[in-house]
Amino acid sequence: MKSIMVAALCLAGSLQLMAQEPLQDWAGLERYQEDNKMVQGPVKAVFMGNSITDGWPVADPDFFTQNGYVGRGISGQVSAQMLMRFRQDVIALNPQVVVILAGTNDIARNDYAMTLEQTFDNVVSMVQLAQANQIKVVLCSTLPAFQFGWRPELKPAEDIKKLNAKFKEFADAQGIPFVDYHSAMKDERDGLPLKYSEDGVHPTVEGYKVMEGLVQKALKKVIQ
């Protein structure tokens, strides 16, 4: 009886502690909830991604406003978090196209250690969700990176190339446009050069301009 009482007290204490702690929005669902309500008119494309996508409308807002594009990137996110908010931040906006850019933070192990196969599976799931809702897909390569400033012990260049090879093979098999940022922007170390990035990961305005030229070619093929 005593052990039962102790267990009950421990459970009660744990529940009280959980009630006092603020709930964590792991997938960032709150980030765009209000913005999504404000979206009016037809959306040509939603850009889904991490900090690289998050910073894009800030660096070059005209690219989005003048083309009917919507940015839905969240800094630091891995593909699993993007997948969890995909229905809210992409499907609910009913765009013609979704542009998916993922992989950097998975390889950087931002949330937990993920295999390349798990990252690939998450991206495939996003593609399948889009297709099931009559949303066309443009799949993008992960940008080159020789090193992550917040994970200096990692050497990501080879893993990024392996992941991109899986993305391209899948896109080709599915007849999905594949935008190869990596080949167009890499330097001799398979990293992102200074002319396109100050930290080797996040593009400057010049870097985004290169990306815009590449993704626009793909979008023109699929946007009606």
UniProtKB/TrEMBL annotation:
Q: Could you cite one Gene Ontology molecular function of this protein?
A: hydrolase activity
Q: In this protein, which residues make up the domain named SGNH hydrolase-type esterase? A: 47-210
Please name the SUPFAM superfamilies in this protein's record. Answer: SGNH hydrolase (SSF52266)
Q: Name one Pfam family in it.
A: Lipase_GDSL_2
Where does the signal sequence lie?
1-19
Query: What are the UniProt keywords, alphabetically?
Result: Hydrolase, Signal
Q: What is this protein called?
A: SGNH/GDSL hydrolase family protein
Which organism is the protein's source? Answer: Phocaeicola acetigenes
